[in-house]
Amino acid sequence: MANIEENVWNITDLLKWYDEFLNFTGMPFTEQDFGPCSTETEALNKNAVVTIYSLVFLLNLLGNSLVILVILYNRVSSSVTDIYLLNLAMADLLFALTLPIWAASKKNGWTFGTPLCKVVSLLKEVNFYSGILLLASISVDRYLAIVYATRTLIQKRHLVKFICMGIWGLSLFLSLPVVLFRRVLYTPQSSPVCYEDFGNNTAKWRMVLRILPQTFGFIIPLLVMLFCYGFALRTLFEAHMGQKHRAMRVIFAVVLIFLLCWLPYNLALLTDTLMRTGVIKNTCKRQNDIGLALDVTEILGFLHSCLNPFIYVFIGQKFRNGFLKILATHGLVSKDFLARHHIISYTSSSISVSAKV
C-alpha cells in the first residue's frame, strides 16, 4: 500500500513539474500547452503586416539617411542636440536593415536560423534602448542649458562623444539577455519562431531578465525626461522665453512620438511577463488578448523608427534650412530662393544653420 501511495505521489509530482515546465520554458503559448485555447492572434493579417514592414523599411531608409546627411553636412555648426539626433538616426537606420527579415518571418515563420535570430533581435533591442537613453541625454542637456544657462558648448561637444559611446555600450549590455537566450523554437501547432528559451522552471529568470532591463532602459530614463522637461518648461514660462520655447517643439515632439510608439509594447510585454510567471491569472482569453496586443504594439514600435525625419521636416526649421542649403550647393535650389525664405549665411564653401531647432 505504501508503495502504491509513493508511486501516485511521484506521478503527481511529475505532472506538476511538467505543467510548470510548459508555463516557464519561454515557449510561445500554443494549443498543445493549454488544451482548448485557440490561437486567435493568427487573425492578424500577415499580408498587411508584411506591407506595413516594407513601407516602414523604405521610409526609414530614406528619411534617416537624409537626417544623417543633413547633420553631417552642417557639422561645423551642429549643436550638442544635433549630435544626439545623429546617433538616434543611426540607431534607426541600423534597425531598418532588419525589417525585411522580420517581414519574411511574419509571413513564413522564422526560417533563418538561430544566429540571425540573435543578431536581428539584438539590433531591435539596441535601437529601443539607445533611443530612450539618447532622448534622456537630450533632456539633461536642455535642462542644463535652460535652467542653469550652461554655456560651455565646446566642452559639452567634446563630452557628448563619450556620452554617446557610453549609451551604445549600455544599450548593448541591456540587450545581452536577448543574445544569450533567443533561438529558433519549433512548436507542433505553429511555425518556427525567434523567441527566448530559458530552459526549465525559469519564472525567476524571466522576471529578472525582462523587468530589470525595462527598469534601467525605460522607466528610469522616462523619469529623467519628465523631471528635466518639467523644470525646463517651468523656467521658460516664468522667464517668458517664447523663442526658446518654440525651439523646444522638435525635442518635445520626438519624445512624445517615442513614448506613444514604445510605451504600449512595454506595457503589453510587462503584462505577458506577469501572466507567464503566475502573478496574474492565466486564461485562454487573456492569452489571446495579450498575444494580439504584443503583435499590434510591436508594429507600432517598429513604425517609430521612420517617424523622426517627418518631425524634423514639418516642425524643425533648422533641419529644413540645412536640407535646402544642400540642394542649393548642388544647384537644385537657387540662392534667391534661400534669400526669399530668409535662409542666411550661405556660401559655396560653408554652411551655417539657423539657430532654431
TrEMBL record:
CDD domains registered for this protein in UniProt: 7tmA_CXCR1_2
Membrane topology: Multi-pass membrane protein
Keyword ATP-binding: no
Localization terms from the record: Cell membrane
Pfam family, one: 7tm_1
GO CC annotations on file: external side of plasma membrane
Keyword Phosphoprotein belongs to the record: yes
Record's keyword terms, sorted: Cell membrane, Chemotaxis, Disulfide bond, G-protein coupled receptor, Glycoprotein, Membrane, Phosphoprotein, Receptor, Transducer, Transmembrane, Transmembrane helix
Sequence intervals crossing the membrane: 52-72, 84-103, 128-150, 162-181, 216-237, 249-270, 290-315
Domain G-protein coupled receptors family 1 profile intervals: 63-312
InterPro entries listed in its UniProt record: CCR1-9-like, Chemokine_CXCR1, Chemokine_CXCR_1/2, GPCR_Rhodpsn, GPCR_Rhodpsn_7TM
Gene Ontology BP annotations: calcium-mediated signaling; immune response; neutrophil chemotaxis; positive regulation of cytosolic calcium ion concentration
GO MF entries: C-C chemokine binding; C-C chemokine receptor activity; C-X-C chemokine receptor activity; interleukin-8 binding
Stated family: Belongs to the G-protein coupled receptor 1 family.
Function: Receptor for interleukin-8 which is a powerful neutrophil chemotactic factor. Binding of IL-8 to the receptor causes activation of neutrophils. This response is mediated via a G-protein that activates a phosphatidylinositol-calcium second messenger system. Binds to IL-8 with high affinity. Also binds with high affinity to CXCL3, GRO/MGSA and NAP-2.
Quaternary structure note: Interacts with IL8. Interacts with GNAI2.
Protein name: C-X-C chemokine receptor type 2
This protein's encoding gene: CXCR1
